[in-house]
């Protein structure tokens, strides 16, 4: 049936049409521009943040040392040839290394005589020097009686001076490094005894009150042990829960309630899990305080909802045709799930797990309640030793008054960020690698 | 050569139906999708189920191997038997049922595994091969039966998903054959394939009917006319007419059947 | 997959089973308590760990109140051995301890801490009295012309320092201080705000008649924009002061010491006294009015159960640590007099019981 009314042919070339087309192009360009600006803005903030931290933290990886000629006098250390190895060791442990330093420094600065001045001189060297000298003697007892040039760590004020963070031009009253010390420092510098070196101790030592001796290894080990426990618990429980909810759970009220609660738990502030950890793991189960076991359990609870939700999404994404094919062949429900669905959902599950772990790595609040926010010097050896975590270490250092801790804090942040980027990178790589097999 | 013969009494008359449906009703919630179907299905022949879209043929087909069990809202009433045993009896093992009544789907769905593993999966989980050599043989025989052996014998380890559409569907048929079924259900197996691949699959079905009872749901009347011996016409959930294919297509008894065949509605 | 699940279940069961035994043994000293004493406690802990064969004690910064609560929750290896406090233990806390079986407590006073009022170096100088601080920061002050007391209070209207005292500069009052959870805040309220409040005779009278209202009025800090809670992190306060030269900060002496090149502290005068700048000597002999004593408390019952406590006490009470030229003084601790040090050293050695008198 043809209609009597005909459509007039559209004039696509008319000025109105052209104006419309131009408007459309303009809108498209504007939208694209907005998108690009949004990305650039985000990138700018990221760049500023990382740039500031990197600037502050770069110096944290370097440390000032002073070369001092130390005479390992037999009078103070004892004669290793005259006594047994154990007796010598005891003697060295009791020996007052400060005297060795005192003698070395007064030899370098013979004009320094008063007790106060000598103490100021000694304070230019880090407290860790005692341990360093002691280790040297115990490792090579033959050193007793000789004079060696030893590279000792400088105290944090001298370090900051070398790095330019203390202004020598300031009035003396307002300066941490007084005029006398400044003069001594300048003399050492002119003699070429002052050097700025890469500070490997930052990576190998535990916490300390002295910035030049403080390191992140204790916190890193603590984080590693904690995350192992978290993974070990959260991954199997989370994945199996997701499988059950997606594949086997009947569609009833109870399942709905469970689902709602899991989704809610994902939004609960992390400190609440800390309270739970305190009440249950410490209060009821009497697990050791500050231990990675407790930290891991608490963080596992926190990470579970994330893993469950992402695992469910991955499982849901497996096409039903695969399940039908398997079922049609006579595979039992368990076989369908474990032979077909889970392997195909694995990339998504792994991605979600790694992201959950990265989240757990950066958490501080839950660890506060279970005692992992503490000054812990020793490196944890096992799951029940007291330990702290990287973000906690950063938090504690940020709170310390010593000026030199500012750069250490930033340096530690850089290390933490590196771990996080690595973990997220791993997640992305895994996802790409496995997705090709689809 | 491994004997793939099924455990059928050699004295059985092929007139005794392999599977029989009596007064089957299927509900999806309140929707009455299949209304009172009674149909006998015989071995050694191809039965095609034809009818317009949404008339319940696929739903009925999926009842025969209890694939509808996985749909939560689906309710099946009536009686369906395999060799005389009610397949909805609680004592029946669904897993074994589905090995005896295999299925090929509309869109080819090979597993994202190698061709070898695709075929070998079924025999593995049902314990049909004791050693690796037995498995190798089953794979070879199934692929030969499906007419795919020559095309893939040199690349059994390449992924099943890398084959063309027609080859994938033949792979799925080979996969279904590998578990030694007695009945093969096919849900519009050629609708996603090009004409050449379709021709190959139809030729395959023709060969296979000698060993299995094949029930095929098809949208194409020409296909039904070409390959099936019995035809059942479905319309709006009812089984309107069923009988020999030639009779249905040349002298249908029901008006609705005639209208459909002559293309009055599709 | 399944194997991982089974292994996890077995490990979990083993953990549960052994959790009882894990609690029994502990070879590390556990210290909790004040964040003000934290830098000193950790310095001694580290030195102790380094120079002896004992493990380095673990020190947590929970706040004085929180620390005493943990300390008083009982005897046993899952309770702390020592708690630090920036104030003396209260009677109610001693009673709580006794209720939970903690009866023998050793008190050791370790030194003094000053709370300074400071600004960036470029800000104008001010010399403040306690009364000035009260009038600048209290939530409610006596109505003009009155001496305070119930019914004579108004909400604090002072917006500039000149409003408080015409001799002070005409700059808006912006004070950055610690939050109510901080011991430093408690000490500041008690020493400075209450100290200034008491200079009004009406308030002094109120103390005797209605101590509840007295406390609320004389220790309450204003909640408008004049007083800004700058968090527990004193480093942050220092940074903010350098950014905003009008602001005045309230924090501990050790932070002033570390940042003396950027900040200056204002002298403070108690009623009727000369203004005192917060120096080592002024705080040490009590001349500077906003200073407090620092303590730690030890459970006698833990002393020979957890190894090293006696030796730790010996390290802390050694002049090398807390003396005039000790390493704690380097960190900003203001030492006790020679006599007090001798007294507490002896008490620590003998594990003398606390007596609150």
Secondary structure: elements and pairs:
The complex is a heterotrimer of chains A (438), B (266) and C (357).
Chain A: H1 15-58, E1 62-71, H2 74-77, H3 85-94, H4 97-108, H5 115-122, H6 129-139, E2 147-153, H7 156-162, H8 179-190, E3 194-198, H9 201-204, H10 217-248, H11 253-265, H12 270-284, H13 292-317, H14 320-328, H15 333-361, H16 365-369, E4 374-375, H17 390-398, H18 405-435
Helix pairs in contact in A: 1-18, 4-5, 10-13, 10-15, 10-17, 12-13, 13-15, 14-15, 15-18, 17-18
Chain B: E1 19-28, E2 31-41, E3 46-50, H1 57-64, E4 74-82, E5 85-86, H2 94-100, E6 101-104, H3 115-126, H4 132-145, H5 149-152, H6 165-178, E7 183-187, H7 195-208, E8 213-217, H8 221-227, E9 230-235, E10 238-244, H9 245-250, H10 255-261
Helix pairs in contact in B: 3-4, 3-6, 4-6, 6-7
Chain C: H1 2-24, E1 30-33, H2 38-51, E2 58-60, H3 64-71, E3 82-85, H4 91-99, E4 105-120, E5 128-129, H5 130-137, E6 140-142, E7 153-155, H6 161-164, E8 175-177, H7 183-197, H8 201-209, H9 211-218, E9 227-229, H10 234-243, E10 248-252, H11 253-258, E11 263-265, E12 268-269, H12 280-284, E13 291-299, H13 309-316, H14 319-322, H15 327-330, H16 338-350
Parallel strand pairs in C: 1-2, 1-3, 5-12, 8-9, 8-10
Antiparallel strand pairs in C: 3-13, 4-10, 4-11, 4-13, 6-7
Helix pairs in contact in C: 2-13, 5-7, 8-9
Keywords for this structure?
heterotrimer; A: 438 residues; mainly alpha; MetI-like fold; three-stranded antiparallel beta sheet; 18 helices; 4 strands; B: 266 residues; alpha/beta; 10 helices; 24% strand
What does this structure look like?
The complex is a heterotrimer of chains A (438), B (266) and C (357). Chain A is mainly alpha-helical and 438 residues long. Chain A has 18 helices and 4 strands. Chain A has 2 domains: 136 residues, no CATH class; 219 residues, MetI-like fold (Orthogonal Bundle), CATH 1.10.3720.10. In chain A, 64% of the residues lie in helices and 5% in strands. The longest helix of chain A has 44 residues. Chain B has 266 residues and is α/β, with parallel strands linked by helices. Chain B has a domain of 175 residues: 3-Layer(aba) Sandwich (Rossmann fold), CATH 3.40.50. In chain B, a hairpin with a 2-residue loop joins β9 and β10. In chain B, α3 crosses α4 and α6 packs parallel to α7. The longest helix of chain B has 14 residues. Chain B is globular and about 55 Å long. Chain B starts with 18 loop residues before the first strand and ends in a 5-residue tail after the last helix. By secondary structure, chain C is an alpha/beta fold. Chain C has 2 domains: 145 residues, Periplasmic binding protein-like II (D-Maltodextrin-Binding Protein, domain 2), CATH 3.40.190; 178 residues, D-Maltodextrin-Binding Protein, domain 2, CATH 3.40.190. Helix content of chain C is 41%, strand content 17%. In chain C, the strands form 3 sheets. In chain C, strands 1, 2, 3, 4, 8, 9, 10, 11 and 13 form a 9-stranded mixed sheet that branches. A two-stranded parallel ribbon of chain C has the order 5-12. Chain C has a two-stranded antiparallel sheet with strand order 6-7. In chain C, α2 links the parallel β1 and β2. Chains A and C meet through α10 and β4 of A and α1, α2, β2 and α11 of C.
């Amino acid at each position: 049936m043809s209609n009597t009314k005909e459509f007039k042919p559209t004039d696509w070339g008319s000025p109105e049409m052209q104006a419309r087309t131009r408007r459309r192009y303009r809108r498209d360009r504007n939208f694209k521009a907005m998108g690009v600006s949004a990305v650039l803005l985000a990138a700018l903030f990221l760049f500023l943040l990382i740039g500031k931290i990197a600037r502050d933290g770069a110096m944290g990886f370097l440390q000032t040392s002073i070369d001092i000629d130390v005479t390992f006098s037999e009078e103070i250390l004892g004669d290793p040839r005259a006594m047994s190895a154990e007796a010598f060791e005891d003697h060295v442990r009791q020996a007052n290394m400060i005297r060795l330093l005192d003698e070395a420094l007064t030899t370098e600065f013979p004009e320094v005589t008063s007790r106060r001045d000598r103490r100021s001189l000694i304070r230019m060297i880090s407290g860790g020097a005692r341990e360093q000298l002691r280790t040297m003697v115990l490792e090579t007892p033959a050193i007793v009686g000789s004079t060696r040039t030893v590279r000792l760590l400088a105290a944090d004020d001298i370090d900051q001076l070398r790095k330019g963070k203390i202004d020598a031009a300031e009035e003396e009253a307002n300066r941490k490094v007084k005029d006398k010390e400044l003069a001594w420092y300048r003399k050492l510098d002119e003699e070429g005894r002052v050097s700025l070196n890469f500070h490997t101790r930052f990576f190998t030592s535990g916490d300390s009150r002295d910035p030049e001796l403080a390191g992140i290894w204790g916190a890193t080990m603590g984080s590693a042990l904690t995350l192992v426990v978290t993974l070990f618990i959260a991954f199997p429980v989370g994945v199996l829960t997701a499988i059950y909810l997606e594949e086997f759970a009947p569609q009833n009220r109870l399942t709905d309630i469970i689902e709602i609660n899991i989704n809610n738990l994902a939004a609960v502030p992390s400190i609440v899990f800390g309270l739970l950890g305190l009440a249950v793991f410490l209060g009821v189960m009497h697990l050791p305080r500050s231990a990675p076991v407790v930290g891991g359990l608490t963080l596992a609870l926190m990470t579970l909802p994330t893993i469950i939700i992402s695992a469910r999404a991955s499982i849901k994404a497996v096409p039903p045709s695969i399940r039908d094919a398997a079922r049609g062949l006579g595979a039992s429900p368990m076989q369908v799930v474990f032979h077909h669905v889970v392997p195909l959902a694995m990339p998504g599950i792994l991605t979600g797990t790694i992201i959950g772990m990265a989240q757990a790595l950066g958490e501080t609040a839950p660890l506060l309640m279970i005692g992992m926010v503490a000054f812990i010097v020793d490196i944890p050896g096992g799951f029940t030793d007291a330990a702290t975590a990287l973000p906690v270490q950063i938090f504690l250092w940020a709170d310390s008054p010593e000026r030199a801790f500012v750069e250490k804090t930033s340096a530690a942040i850089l290390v933490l960020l590196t771990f996080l980027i690595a973990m997220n990178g791993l997640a992305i790589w895994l996802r790409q690698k496995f997705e090709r097999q689809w | 050569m491994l004997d793939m013969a099924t455990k059928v009494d050699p004295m059985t008359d092929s007139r005794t139906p392999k599977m029989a449906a009596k007064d089957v009703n299927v509900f999806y919630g309140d929707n009455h999708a299949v209304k009172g179907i009674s149909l006998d299905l015989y071995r050694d022949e191809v039965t095609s189920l034809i009818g317009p879209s949404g008339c319940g043929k696929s739903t009925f087909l999926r009842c025969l191997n209890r694939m509808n069990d996985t749909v939560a809202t689906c309710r099946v009433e009536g009686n369906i038997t395999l060799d005389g045993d009610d397949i909805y009896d609680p004592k029946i093992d669904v897993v074994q049922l589905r090995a005896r009544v295999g299925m090929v789907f509309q869109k080819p769905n090979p597993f994202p595994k190698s061709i070898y593993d695709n075929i070998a999966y079924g025999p593995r989980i049902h314990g049909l091969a004791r050693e690796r050599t037995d498995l190798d043989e089953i794979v070879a025989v199934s692929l030969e039966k499906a007419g795919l052996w020559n095309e893939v014998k040199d690349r059994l380890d390449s992924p099943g998903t890398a084959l063309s559409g027609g080859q994938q569907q033949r792979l799925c048929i080979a996969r279904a054959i590998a578990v030694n079924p007695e009945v093969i259900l096919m849900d519009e197996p050629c609708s996603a394939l090009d004409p050449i691949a379709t021709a190959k699959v139809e030729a395959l079905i023709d060969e296979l009917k000698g060993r299995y009872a094949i029930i095929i749901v098809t949208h194409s009347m020409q296909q039904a006319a070409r390959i099936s011996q019995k035809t059942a016409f479905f319309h709006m959930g009812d089984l309107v007419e069923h009988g020999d294919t030639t009779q249905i297509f040349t002298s249908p008894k029901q008006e609705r059947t005639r209208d459909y065949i002559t293309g009055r509605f599709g | 997959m399944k194997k991982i699940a089974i292994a996890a279940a077995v490990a979990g069961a083993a953990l549960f089973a052994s959790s009882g035994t894990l609690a029994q043994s502990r070879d590390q000293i556990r210290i909790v308590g004040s964040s003000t004493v934290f830098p000193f406690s950790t310095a001694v802990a580290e030195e102790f760990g380094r120079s002896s064969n004992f493990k380095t004690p673990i020190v947590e910064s929970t706040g004085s109140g929180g620390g005493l609560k943990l300390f008083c929750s009982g005897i046993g290896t899952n309770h702390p051995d020592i708690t630090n406090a920036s104030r003396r233990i209260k009677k109610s806390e001693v009673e709580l301890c006794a209720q939970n079986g903690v009866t023998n407590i050793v008190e050791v006073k370790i030194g003094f801490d000053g709370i300074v009022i400071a600004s960036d170096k470029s800000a104008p100088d001010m010399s403040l009295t306690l009364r000035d601080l009260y009038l600048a920061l209290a939530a409610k002050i006596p109505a003009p012309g009155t001496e305070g007391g119930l019914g004579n209070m108004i909400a604090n209207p002072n917006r500039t320092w000149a409003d408080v005292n015409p001799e002070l500069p005409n700059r808006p009052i912006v004070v950055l201080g610690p939050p109510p959870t901080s011991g430093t805040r408690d000490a500041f309220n008690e020493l400075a705000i209450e100290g200034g409040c008491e200079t009004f005779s009406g308030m002094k009278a109120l103390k005797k008649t209605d101590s509840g209202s007295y406390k609320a009025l004389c220790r309450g800090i204003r909640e408008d924009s004049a007083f800004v809670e700058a968090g527990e992190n004193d480093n942050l306060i220092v940074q903010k002061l350098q950014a905003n030269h009008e602001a005045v900060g309230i924090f501990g002496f050790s932070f002033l010491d570390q940042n003396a090149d950027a900040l200056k502290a204002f002298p403070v005068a108690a009623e009727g006294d000369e203004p005192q700048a917060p120096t080592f000597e002024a705080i040490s002999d009590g001349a500077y009015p906003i200073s407090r004593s620092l303590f730690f408390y030890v459970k006698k019952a833990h002393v020979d159960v957890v190894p090293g406590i006696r030796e730790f006490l010996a390290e802390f009470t050694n002049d090398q640590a807390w003396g005039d030229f000790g390493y704690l003084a380097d960190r900003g601790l203001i030492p006790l007099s020679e006599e007090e040090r001798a007294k507490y050293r002896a008490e620590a050695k003998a594990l003398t019981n606390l007596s609150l008198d």
